[in-house]
Design brief:
This protein is 37% helix and 25% strand. The chain is of the alpha+beta class and 386 residues long. The protein has 3 domains: 156 residues, ATP-grasp fold, B domain (D-amino Acid Aminotransferase, Chain A, domain 1, 2-Layer Sandwich), CATH 3.30.470; 73 residues, ATP-grasp fold, A domain (Dna Ligase, domain 1, 2-Layer Sandwich); 149 residues, Succinyl-CoA synthetase domains (Rossmann fold, 3-Layer(aba) Sandwich), CATH 3.40.50.261. Strands 7, 8, 9, 10, 11 and 12 form a 6-stranded antiparallel beta sheet that branches. The chain has a 4-stranded antiparallel beta sheet with strand order 1-6-2-3, with helices on one face. A 4-stranded parallel beta sheet has the order 14-16-17-18, with helices on both faces. A hairpin with a 2-residue loop joins strand 4 and strand 5. Helix 2 packs antiparallel against helix 3, helix 10 packs across helix 11 and helix 11 packs parallel to helix 12. The protein is elongated, with a radius of gyration of 27 Å. The two termini are 41 Å apart. The structure holds guanosine-5'-diphosphate (GDP) and manganese (II) ion. The site of manganese (II) ion has 2 residues, from loops.
Length: 386
């Protein structure tokens, strides 16, 4: 999961990492007021879930509050990598002497945490990594032991940073490691970590990504989740409801099933039958009536969904409970679309009886292929008659 720079700064500061002072604003007027308060040169920075903001024109210096207002008017509303800027950070601008790169990420192959330090930091770090990788020092840290002082020293001396600042830089490395570990981050990056003209070491950017699978124990961080770069509004709502749902905008067939493999196969088969899946939704291994109801409501939220195909294999799952869930929720659905159901396995005879005895337009089929063809046929028929 991604967060914004201003949020990453706040988290890092809890671990004792100093950043230049900054405040969040949503309008040019707020930006002007903050700039007035700071009373010096400020930097106005787009807050979006994307890197490379500087190169995209989303980071601009302003000498006075009026200039800050003007710069903010341009940055607010602009698009960076397809994301619209609705917030900016207004920070006390720093006189930069040198820009370094400091970051931690995971090295999955080595099952370690990797410390990355370079004296060639700044907006061109990707270019540096591609053309002169020797300028980037990487040290694998064993997370079961934790970062060692000698590893920090090794990084500092290998990377070519100003060694008269070794102590201060070492302290950033140490604290950023703690921050990275304690928050279950996948990536924590300070680019640039700067030496100012006054000789101070300051973080003027902060970036963090987190492991989604650890969010259950990182409640505060989980609360920072927003619709946007990773999840759209439908997915955020489904996630809040505890559903395993992936939206495929533009599709017309809603898909539900139990088990990721079965659901993905169902999507493939619907595609082969000429339909376009609108989503992936996995009820999980033991689908219940309540889970099925929540799922159907979620799948129907996108108005592009013109029909739903439910495909359930009853192993542990009792298909009669699934059938009852569908029947019970049907009248509550805000939109009525064709629903095709294939249920097989545990108590399937009972499930079939429940569905057929319900007097609702629920179509029972006995194979996945038949169901895929049926839902496509019903959707096409409705489209033709509309
Ligand atoms: P990114 O491009 O998304 O990584 O955004 P950054 O926060 O890293 O800003 C991009 C670049 O803007 C930095 O590498 C700096 O060169 C410049 N910049 C950011 N803040 C300041 C500042 O306070 N003073 C000065 N002089 N330049 C800054
Ligand atoms: Mn940066």
């Amino acid at each position: 999961m991604k967060i914004h720079e201003y949020q990453a700064r706040e988290i890092m500061s809890k671990f004792g990492i100093p950043t230049n002072h900054g405040e969040l604003a949503r309008t040019p007027e707020e930006v002007r007021a903050i700039a007035e308060k700071i009373g010096r040169m400020v930097v106005v920075k787009a807050q979006v879930h994307a890197g490379g903001r500087g190169k995209a024109g989303g980071v601009k210096l302003a000498k006075n509050p009026e200039e800050a207002f003007e710069v903010a008017s341009k940055i607010l509303g602009m698009e960076i990598k397809g994301l619209t800027v609705d917030r900016v950070l207004v920070a006390d601008a720093v006189d930069i002497e040198t820009e370094y790169y400091l970051g931690f990420t995971l090295n999955r192959e080595d099952k370690s945490v990797v410390l990355i330090l370079s004296a060639a930091g700044g907006v061109d770090i990707e270019e540096v990594a591609a053309s002169t990788p020797e300028k980037i020092t990487k040290i694998n840290i064993d997370p079961t032991v934790g970062i060692q002082d000698y590893e920090i020293r090794q990084a500092v001396y290998m990377s070519g940073v100003d060694t008269t600042k070794a102590r201060a830089i070492a302290s950033f490395i140490d604290k950023l490691y703690d921050c990275f570990m304690a928050t279950d981050a996948e990536m924590a990056e300070i680019n640039p970590l700067v030496i100012t003209k006054q000789g101070e070491v300051v973080a003027i950017d902060a970036k963090m990504n987190f492991d989604d699978n650890a969010l259950y124990r990182q409640k505060e961080i989980a609360g920072l989740r927003e619709a946007g770069s990773e999840l759209d509004e439908y997915e955020v709502q489904a996630m809040e409801e505890g559903l395993t749902y992936v939206h495929l905008p533009g599709g017309n067939v809603g898909i539900c099933g139990n088990g990721a493999g079965l659901v993905m196969t169902t999507m493939d088969v619907v595609k082969r039958a000429g339909g376009t899946p609108n989503n992936f939704l996995d009820f999980g291994g033991s689908a219940t009536a309540e889970g099925v109801q929540k799922a159907l409501i979620a799948v129907l939220r996108d108005p592009d969904v013109k029909g739903i195909f439910i495909n359930v294999f009853g192993g542990i799952t009792r298909t009669d409970l699934v059938a009852q869930g569908i029947v019970d929720v049907y009248d509550k659905l805000e939109r009525k679309v064709p629903i095709v159901i294939r249920l097989t396995g545990t108590r399937e005879e009972l499930a079939k009886e429940i569905l057929e005895g319900s007097n609702k337009p629920l179509v029972f089929v006995d194979s996945m292929w038949a169901g895929a063809q049926k839902i496509v046929e019903l959707i096409n028929a409705e489209a033709a008659s509309a």
